[in-house]
């Protein structure tokens, strides 16, 4: 059996205000899995993802990502962990004073790649998300769906094995959601492990991916789908 | 390595260009602070130099008691020459003293008419060895001279030397106290400006955190920004000080200029200038370091 890409073992997260965000979460995600983390707003989806990319520390429990113990990862090692994952958020977090290509190339530049190589690689990844013609455009000239595609391109440009997406379709209409979901499905088919947090259960039903239900910080159901079906999902239209 | 340096310089100049106004304010404040510090350094340097020149010319005059028989002068000269620290001794008779005064008074020498040379006491002008020409060592020589009964009075301008030494010490103390206060102020101001810069680039830094940019990729450009601000501030301070130094003679009365011409008013030596520039850079660096500790934590 493959070693899990993500292991969460009896993880609790309680904020100083005594609000419990996660309660006894135990979860295993295997390489190549596409997993929906589904639950209503405030259920703990974002906290779970934030713990995985070390933006928050759990109150107790063990979290291992790609063999690295997140709870024991010091300040000087966090960036090494983050390089193994791409992060996509609902609000895109794109740099408005830069072009589309510059936004994507920025990731490579700040992780030690020469500028010229970064630009070429950015163009290549923009082609994969269907934005090859928009490379020199300003971010502000793009639609919300296009902006989210740029954010996905930025998240995967350095080929991380894991993609964490926090409500990536939250700000998109149905048509744009389909466009974006196609990209996620494509990335998954190419072997990327994807953790996709969403509150829109309507979206999940179109896919045969694993669904982890979360409510009030507790995992209700984390059944694992038949791995032979991974990649067979079709985006609903 | 070259790639990293190119990256750092590009990011630093992008940041400085993008935050021109806060950067100019910081450079200005560093320049003013360094100018105040440098002015005190220059004053202390010149006063110390003046003290050294004066000490080089220092001479002890030992006045002989009136009525000292001339037969005693020669043995007394020999005795004085043998004292530790004494380099040269010259006997000044009352006639020599009168001639000296006439020369000094020039056209006003008529003032001395009717005054007999006998009124003036004979004296020994004692030149000291170089290592004895300071306020501590000179005291030792004078103590020996005072033990010789034929001398009535010893003059060497001790009070003046001591007062001047104290003045230089006060100036140096003020320089360092002021320097310390300015140091704290500059670090505070630089770190706050850097915080403004960081906050204007908040989104970019957040993305850098997300994508796994190493702490050095995030922080070093801000450190370099602080170093450049410090260097520019220090450089401007030196430039202003040079202009002040050069302009000094343009705006002072000619009578004072004549007096000043005898005392060289020097500018700071090159090594002090280098230290001031390095000091500015260290200040700028600490400011950005403090800011980075506060606002560039990995999130």
Main sheet of chain B? 4 strands, antiparallel
Please report the total strand number of chain B as a whole number. 4
Q: Assess the beta-strand content of chain B as a share of residues.
A: 5-15%
Q: Which whole number gives the mean pLDDT of chain B? A: 84
Q: What oligomeric state best describes the polypeptide chains here? A: heterodimer
Q: Write down the domain tally of chain B.
A: 2
- Cα Rg of chain B: 31 Å
Total number of strands of chain A: 10
Q: What is the N-to-C order of secondary-structure elements of chain B (H for helix, E for strand)? A: HHEHEHEHEHHHHH
Annotated CATH topology of the largest domain in chain A: Rossmann fold
Order of helices and strands of chain A: EEEHEEHEHHHEHEHEE
Number of distinct helices of chain A: 7
The pLDDT mean of chain A sits at: 86
User: Major sheet of chain A: size, sense and barrel closure?
Assistant: 6 strands, mixed
Distance between the termini of chain A: 35 Å
**What is the alpha-carbon Rg of chain A in Å?**
17 Å
- Poorly predicted parts of chain A: 224-237
Query: In angstroms, what separates the terminal alpha carbons of chain B?
Result: 26 Å
Structure description:
The complex is a heterodimer of chains A (237) and B (299). Chain A has 237 residues and is α/β, with parallel strands linked by helices. Chain A has 2 domains: 1-84 and 160-232, Rossmann fold; 98-159, no CATH class. Chain A is built from 7 helices and 10 strands. Chain A has helices at residues 45-52, 78-82, 100-109, 115-128, 144-156, 174-189, 201-204; strands spanning 6-14, 20-29, 34-38, 60-65, 68-69, 85-89, 162-166, 193-198, 210-215, 218-221. In chain A, β7, α6 and β8 form a beta-alpha-beta unit. In chain A, α3 (100-109) packs across α4, α4 crosses α5 (144-156) and α5 packs parallel to α6. The radius of gyration of chain A is 17 Å and the shape is globular. Residues 224-237 of chain A have low confidence and may be disordered. Chain B is α+β, with helices and mostly antiparallel strands. Chain B has 2 domains: 2-53 and 162-295, no CATH class; 59-156, Alpha-Beta Plaits, CATH 3.30.70.3040. Chain B has helices spanning 2-18, 20-56, 70-81, 94-105, 135-146, 158-200, 202-211, 215-247, 254-262, 270-295, and strands spanning 59-64, 86-92, 123-128, 151-155. In chain B, α1 packs across α8, α2 runs antiparallel to α6 and α2 (20-56) packs across α8 (215-247). The longest helix of chain B has 43 residues, at 158-200. The radius of gyration of chain B is 31 Å and the shape is elongated. The mean pLDDT of chain B is 84. The A-B interface holds A 53, 55, 75-76, 78-83, 87, 93, 95, 106-107, 109-112, 114-115, 154, 158 and B 3-4, 7, 203-204, 206-215, 217-218, 297-299.
């Amino acid at each position: 059996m493959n070693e899990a890409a993500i292991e969460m073992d009896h993880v609790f997260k309680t904020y100083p205000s005594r609000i419990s965000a996660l309660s006894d979460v135990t979860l295993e995600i295997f390489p190549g899995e596409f997993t929906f983390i589904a639950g209503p707003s405030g259920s703990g989806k974002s906290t779970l993802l934030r713990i995985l990319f070390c933006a928050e520390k759990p109150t107790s429990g063990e979290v291992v990502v790609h063999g690295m113990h997140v709870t024991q990862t010091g300040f000087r090692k966090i960036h090494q962990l983050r390089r193994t994952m791409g992060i996509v958020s609902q609000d895109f977090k794109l740099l408005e004073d830069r072009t589309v290509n510059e936004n994507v190339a920025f990731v490579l530049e700040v992780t030690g790649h020469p500028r010229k190589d970064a630009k070429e690689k950015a163009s290549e990844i923009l082609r994969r998300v269907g934005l090859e013609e928009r490379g020199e455009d300003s971010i502000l000239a793009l639609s919300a769906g296009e902006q989210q595609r740029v954010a996905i391109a930025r998240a995967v440009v350095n080929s991380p094995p894991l993609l964490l997406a926090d409500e990536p379709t939250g700000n998109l209409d149905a048509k744009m959601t389909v466009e974006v979901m196609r990209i996620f499905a494509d990335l998954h088919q190419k072997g990327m492990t994807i953790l996709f947090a969403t509150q829109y259960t309507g979206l999940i039903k179109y896919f045969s991916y694993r669904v982890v239900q979360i409510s009030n910080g507790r995992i209700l159901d984390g059944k694992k789908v038949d791995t032979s079906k991974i990649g067979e999902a079709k985006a609903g239209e | 390595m070259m790639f990293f340096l190119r990256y750092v310089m590009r990011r630093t100049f992008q940041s400085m260009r993008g935050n021109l106004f806060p950067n100019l304010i910081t450079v200005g404040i560093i320049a003013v602070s360094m100018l105040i510090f440098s002015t005190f350094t220059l004053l202390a340097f010149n006063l110390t130099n003046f003290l050294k020149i004066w000490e080089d010319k220092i001479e002890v005059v030992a006045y002989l008691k009136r009525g000292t028989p001339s037969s005693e002068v020669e043995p007394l000269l020999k005795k004085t020459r043998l004292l530790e620290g004494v380099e040269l001794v010259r006997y000044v008779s009352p006639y020599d003293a009168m001639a000296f005064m006439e020369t000094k008074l020039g056209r006003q020498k008529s003032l001395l008419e009717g005054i007999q040379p006998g009124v003036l006491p004979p004296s020994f002008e004692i030149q000291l060895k170089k290592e004895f020409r300071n306020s501590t060592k000179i005291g030792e020589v004078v103590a020996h001279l005072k033990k010789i009964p034929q001398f009535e009075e010893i003059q060497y301008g001790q009070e003046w030397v001591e007062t001047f030494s104290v003045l230089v010490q006060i100036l140096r103390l003020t320089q360092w106290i002021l320097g310390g206060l300015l140091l704290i102020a500059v670090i505070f101001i630089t770190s706050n400006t850097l915080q403004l810069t960081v906050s204007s680039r908040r989104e970019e830094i957040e993305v850098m955190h997300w994508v796994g940019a190493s702490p050095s990729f995030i922080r070093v450009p801000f450190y370099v920004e602080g170093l450049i601000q410090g260097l520019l501030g220090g450089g401007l301070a030196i430039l202003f000080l040079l202009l002040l130094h050069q302009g000094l003679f343009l705006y002072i009365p000619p009578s004072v200029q004549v007096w000043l011409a005898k005392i060289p008013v020097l500018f700071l030596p090159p090594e002090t200038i280098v230290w001031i520039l390095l000091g500015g850079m260290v200040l700028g660096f600490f400011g950005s370091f403090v800011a980075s500790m506060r606002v560039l934590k990995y999130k």
